[in-house]
Here is the input.
Amino acid sequence: MSAITIQTEGPMNPVANPIADQATAERVIPSLEILKKKQKAKTEVNWVTAIFMGLFHIGAIAALFFFSWKALIVATVLWWVATSLGIGMCYHRLLTHRGYKVPRWLEYTLTVFATLALEGGPIFWVATHRIHHKFSDREGDPHSPIDGTWWSHMGWILTGKSMHHDTSTLSRYVPDLAQDKFYVWITKYHYVPMIVVGLALLAVGGIPLVLWGIFLRTVVGLHATWLVNSATHSWGSRRFKTRDLSTNSWWVALLTWGEGWHNNHHAHPVSARHGLTWYEIDTNWYVIWTLQKFGLAKKVYTAKIEAKQSTESSIVGRTLTPEVQRDLAAVEM
Here is the structure.
């Protein structure tokens, strides 16, 4: 029977623990005051978010009545730029888990791409995701299906404080980004790149290009990302025994450029590669691999599997060596 053996490439401990100690947290709080928001009760509606979500869904429906091949191509390209280069490669694998490193100019560029997904600025996004890994499918997880499928998919965006962490929480979970003025600025004004692109599309192709390139592709991208929170913690296969409900889902992976191999990711969160076999399509990893070949991505941390004869118990239970597990434990959010 084919079993799983994990090998690692890259540094054994690719990043120091991003959860700050008390002294570090207190030091970065002043830089986050510009991002201070009113805290919401769990049942309190985030009206600004809810209204914009509603308007974007209306715009997405309207786009269906203004179809053109040009609009479809523009929407597809922007969908890839925002959700693959931006959310998957940058917000998730680069900024949250530090699975690889790129030159600062490229890191900032990918961050701007990510803001086009309408998923907020990097500081709030990264903080939320690090909290998710720390409390995955337990009390404190901002978007677990244990609290309901609707909640894990979209409800947590519309109500509660998950998208409006206080400065003390941010200072603890994102001290690395909080000390960078660019990340503080782009988090405060994350909507600016979307407005610029929207105006450019309006000038080039009018209303149809705006409806497809902004509204429809954004809604598709949002629901695809949210499926990682809901579907891949509810249905799918589990290669690894993890302390949460994470699963691998091939169809979510296709919709999210490789983010659907979620059980693989939760087992090895620092790995820049999520699809661990040839048939687990992981477009985000292919781009990172390409950047590595061109010398733009360095200190790339990966986990990969090889088949060998063993027992069924080792198929579900085999992970990294104890030494590497300790290193991962130090960086697992």
Remarks:
- The longest strand covers residues 2-9.
- The first helix runs from residue 22 to 32.
- The beta strands are 2-9, 302-309.
